[in-house]
Amino acid sequence: MNKREVNQDKKLQWLEQLVGRNLLEKMLCSFSKSTGLKAILVDNKGNTLISPDHAKKDCDFCEMIKSDSNGAKKCQRSYARACTEASKYGEPYIFRCHAGLIMWAAPILLDEYVGSIICGQVLMWEPEDYFLEEIEEMVKGLNIDVAAVKWSASHLEIMSSDKVQAAADLLFVVANQIMQSGMTVLEQRREIAAQQARLAEEIQARKRAEVAMNTIESRTKRINSLEKEQELKLKVRNGEKRTAEKLLEKILVDVFSKDSNHLDTLKTRMMELVVIISRAAVDGGAELGEVSQLNTQFYREILEITSPDELCLWSKKMLETVMNYIETNKNQKNLQAIQKAAEFIRKNYRNKLTIDNIAQAVYLSPCYVSRIFKQGLGCTLMEYLTQVRVEEAKAMLKDPKYNVMQVAEESGFEDPGYFTRVFKKLEGVTPSRYKQHAL
Length: 439
What we know:
This protein is α+β, with helices and mostly antiparallel strands. The protein has helices at residues 3-19, 21-35, 60-66, 69-89, 129-138, 146-153, 161-211, 213-237, 241-258, 263-283, 288-304, 308-348, 355-362, 366-377, 381-397, 404-410, 416-427, 431-438, and strands at residues 39-43, 48-50, 93-96, 102-110, 113-122.
């Protein structure tokens, strides 16, 4: 088998895998039976891939032309050119072969495969003398009986242009059906190939993961330990005692499960935790000097510990001591902030005050100062401001030189009507009635 035949065989095998030889032969045979015309499948080189044996044979004219090797090659070149033109435009291509017969090609385009279904071997007009003379010129040089060829040409089937076009369109339908069948298989193949590629990649990824598992696990433990310590620091700084205690328990499990038999190593890790917790306490507002005194006490206690169990229990108590100190310190600072806020209100009640103004005066956020003020005094900042203004208004109403409108303005109420409503709500009487009874 020469190289051309090998390539031809490969193309046919590839096409048969996509569509199936039985289906290809069945469609070509059905077309031939329905039209009375022979149909063959060729590749883009003009090589015949499928020519069903039980379908219609070549006409006598074509058989004589192909009986000569040069004639067969000319037929092949005609098929190749027709295949190229049909694939170029993607529609049926009607052409005249080298021997002068009318034929047509329907393109088949599947992925990288290019081929056509070739059909025809007819005439579209009655053969005249000049046509027979033309045929004699066309077959010159072929080792065939020219007279017999001319005689067979005069007996070729004649089809009208409409019938030729209809047959070409029908052939195009057949070609499209073949392409659709092939494309379905191609798509399935692509999906399978993509899935196999994904599976192969996943397998390789798992192998790489297994190889690096020990290293990754070790790094993960270190990262998790650092993350827990950072989270513990955040909870201590924010005074979240219960959450901090739970985090410390997790850290202790990691530390003691790894170095349970090395007391000195455990003590070193606990000292590191003391430093972390102490820094968090200072960040949370604790006094550095007082925290340093606590640390000195903690270090002395660690040195006296003689067992891991005792060290574990001490660690929990150490955190509790720091958290209680932070809470006490925070309460003291909150009380100071509340006092400063109240003092600021009493000094500036005549001005237009907002929660933001008050928060800026005590160097706290509006939300935080509002919360601790409510917790400490049982009323909101604005309620306290209103109470201060009303108390000042009561004192001024007892003075004959002030009328109600003056009292409202001087006590920080911009709207006398609002002043009257607020005053009556708190004191049970209007400012005017209160003034009458006070004088």
